[in-house]
Amino acid sequence: MRARSTLAAAAIGAITIAIVAGSSATAADNSEMAKHGQGGKKPKTPIQHLVVIYQENVSFDHYFATYPKADNPAGEPAFTAKKHTPTVNGLSGALLTNNPNATNPFRLDRSQASTCDQDHEYTAEQEAFNALKMDKFLEFVGVGSPGCPDYGFGAGLTMGYFDGNTVTAFWNYAQHFAMNDNSFGTTFGPSTPGAINLISGNTNGANPPDLTVNGEIDTIAGSVIADPQPTGDVCTTRDNVTMSGKNIGDLLNANGVTWGFFEGGFDLTQTNPDGSTGCKRSHTSTVTNVKKGDYIPHHQPFQYYASTANPNHLRPTSVSAIGTTDQANHQYDTTDFFAALANGNMPSVSFLKAAGYQDGHAFYSDPLDEQTFVVNTINTIEKTPEWKSTAIIILYDDSDGWYDHQAPQIVNGSTTDADALNGPGKCGSGPQLGNAQGRCGYGPRLPFLVISPYARLNFVDHSLTDQSSVLRFIEDNWKTGGIGNGSFDQIAGKIDKMFNFERPAHAKKRALFLDPDTGLVAGE
After folding, report:
1. Number of domains in the chain
2. How far apart are CA 183 and CA 468, in angstroms?
3. Dihedral (C-alpha) 354, 355, 356, 357: value to the nearest 10 degrees?
4. Which of 83, 140, 220, 497 could bridge 127 with an S-S bond, Cβ 3.0-4.6 Å?
5. How far apart are the first and last CA of the chain?
6. Residue 403 CA from chain centroid, whole number
7. Domain encompassing residue 214
8. Is residue 482 pLDDT above 90, yes or no?
9. Is omega for the bond preceding 146 within 30 degrees of 0, making it cis?
10. Distance CA 152, CA 139 (A)
């Protein structure tokens, strides 16, 4: 495992050096806005830089079911919680031994990091939640072999969870910073609805408004509920849609705030070690042994909007221009983030999406590959001058169908043919926000962590939040105004309790460096 993280870190460094060296601009040539990653309105809080690491397909219980207690078997990284560590709304008592589902939850060993992908469609998740009784996961979202490792559990694999001996880094980040145990997907459904909710809080406005391909409903009543790809993206290969309305990129542009969405594989000019290039750049995970494309079009939400799309994946005009408006239109490769970081022009707001094999999605990715990306990224940020004014948020696009015991509040209902929470054609009492159908939520509970010098220490926030709470924080911090038009941002819970802005002397130099292989504190 050491070799995997060492190579990943070396690759980040090598690419960064190459990009910086190849640019005609230098840090000395930057404007003050680019140099400091700032521009537009002064932030409301000490957070001048927000980095959102947006990963794939994990429910809260799947990663934090027994936090802060790990089994600590021999041969796995050991985890021992700090004294006075708060508990979370996880699995204990009857939920572990007499669960209402057909199989009790069970621990997945570190050697079982590679797993089958579960069903996580809009309708199937509602059926699994079964009128919020949370007791039909095996029947509607559980997936087993053939073709993927289910370790003999079959559909019962959906009840599996990891602990601090596998997702060690995430448990250590929770120990040293803050997390929320009451955060949900804005709506039910897979990756694309989650990604769009992150940047606009509104999956309505799709064109075509009703699209069904091979029996799968991609859009219904104008809302995206599945994973169609963005129209016009040169890497799009199947059914596709566009989105109307505004997203947070539009608001940041209007207020002169630097920003970017950085996804692995977006730079089509690079060639990977395996010789793959263009839209087919790929990696094969040494954990799952699955070859997966780095760039996944339906994971790139800004590509659905004409105002923020970069359909031909044009490169930024220089490293110094990253975060500003040029031909790249704020859409970049993850390597561009590290190049900007090294060049001293970290954008005010950065969204990071790992290459496929490191994004945490079951089957083609896994917790160990995910940990490598997350830890290397955070370690790198913590070594920069910008760290003292940075907040890093880790959250997820959907639950993958993994079991979580906590029923959500249905704050916005829907009554389309795709809805099924309270019976056929019904999820809650109907739409409240913008009167838009096909946006029933909140959906499954998901992990949410804040890593920052200003994050509260070893703190668990129980405030009700969702994916669009990130959108609301950006809007509030940079005073951009809201999205409007029925966006969930207008009712999103705030994440402010996870920060302590009153003790800057305590906060400025706090950092935590972890080993990307083990997830343990570096040097321990």
Report:
1. 1
2. 10
3. -100
4. 140
5. 17
6. 18
7. 2-507
8. yes
9. yes
10. 17
Residue 288 token pair: 């799952």
Q: What is the pLDDT of residues 111-159, one digit of tens each?
A: 999 999 999 999 999 999 999 999 999 999 999 888 899 999 999 999 9
> Could you tell me if residue 520 is inside a domain?
no
List CB contacts of 325: < 8 A, sequence separation 6 or more: 253
Q: Tell me the residue length of the chain.
A: 524
pLDDT digits (tens, 9 = 90+) for 188-225: 999 999 999 999 999 999 999 999 999 999 999 999 99
Q: Mean pLDDT of all residues in the chain?
A: 92
Exposed, middle or buried by CB within 10 Å (0-12, 13-18, 19+), for 286? middle
Tokens 């390597």 sit on residue: 335
Q: How far is CA 191 from CA 222, 228, 246, 301, 491, in A?
A: 17, 10, 19, 10, 22
Q: How far apart are CA 203 and CA 209, in angstroms?
A: 11
Q: Is 423 left (phi over 0), alpha (psi -120 to 50) or beta?
A: left
For residue 89, the tally of other CB atoms under 10 A from its CB is 17
The answer to whether residue 163 is domain-embedded is yes
d(CA 81, CA 392): 22
Q: Residue 2: pLDDT band by 50, 70, 90 thresholds?
A: very low
pLDDT, residue 41, reads 75
- Give per-residue burial for 356-368: e unless 16+ CB within 10 Å, then b: bbbbbbbbbbbbb
For 258-300, the pLDDT digits (tens) are 999 999 999 999 999 999 999 999 999 999 999 999 999 999 9
Q: For residues 351-355, give the mean pLDDT.
A: 98
| 523 lies in some domain | no
Residue 84 belongs to a domain: yes
Residues 6+ apart with CB under 8 A from 247: 199, 200, 301, 302, 305, 307, 308, 483
SS3 (DSSP) at 336 = helix
Query: Which amino acid appears at position 155 of this protein?
Result: A
Residue 234 · residue 312 · CB < 8 Å: yes
CATH of the domain at 392: 3.40.720.10
* The two structure tokens encoding residue 202: 């509104």
Cα 298-301-302 angle, rounded to 5 deg: 130
pLDDT tens digit string along 11-44? 444 444 333 333 333 333 333 343 334 456 799 9
322 neighbors 347 (Cβ within 8 angstroms): yes
Q: How many CB atoms lie within 10 A of CB 309?
A: 21
- Summarised one tens digit per residue, pLDDT across range 446-479 is 999 999 999 999 999 999 999 999 999 999 999 9
How far apart are alpha carbons 355 and 335 in whole angstroms?
A: 10
Residue 18 pLDDT: 36
d(CA 45, CA 78) in angstroms, rounded, equals 37
